[in-house]
Design goal:
Elements (H helix, E strand, L loop, with lengths): L2 E7 L1 H4 L7 H15 L3 E7 L2 H14 L4 H22 L22 E4 L8 H12 L3 E6 L4 E2 L11 E2 L1 E3 H8 L13 H10 L2 E6 L3 H9 L7 E4 L2
Parallel strand pairs: 1-2, 1-4, 2-3, 4-8, 7-9
Antiparallel strand pairs: 5-6, 8-9
Length: about 230
Amino acid sequence: MKKTIVISLGGSLIVPKGGIDILFLKKFKKLIADFAKKDYKIILICGGGRTARDYQKSAKAITKLTRDDLDWIGIHATRLNGHLVRTIFRDIVHPTIIKNPNQKVIFKEKVLIGVGWRPGCSTDYDAVLLAKTYGAKKVINLTNIDYLYDKNPTIYKNAKKIKEIDWQGFRKIVGNKWDPGANTPFDPIASREAQKLGLELILANGKKLDNLKKIIRGDKNFIGSIVYNH
């Protein structure tokens, strides 16, 4: 029986400051391809990251925008990133990029790419819905930091690292409101849905690919944070 793994790939891993990270994408492709040769099916959801925020910031500097305007800019940033990743994985990926996470696609390939769906929904939320649709029990959320913190570590030097936390505690950290382009550990709306579904969430640094191997395999001694239900 194939094991389905849902990975939310942060847009800032795909396109960090300075442009597309070709070296990272090469190594990431090899890692995913290696697991695809085994008994795994991988669903990758691509975020908009810095690309989305830069476009949103530029548009807001020129004219007044609605929340939907900002969301659509972010959605199309995820679709651009998703198309890049789909093309990179072209030899093992399903040819159609998934926009609606509620519609189950029967795919014989080993990799499926998901992207932004509609206003009001982040790619974190899409990842949770894809986990529900395809029967996955956890979501691996890859960003550019190692752990969850009780507050933003780039602003607060006294921010505390959290290795394990339940959904109730986690939701106190991320809040209840979704803002287009927000840079939070995980979308609050997605968090509420994941808690309802009883999913496990793993937050980890996507740059550390040897560590990602451990997470996909289900090893316990990885670098990262776990959010769980009681």
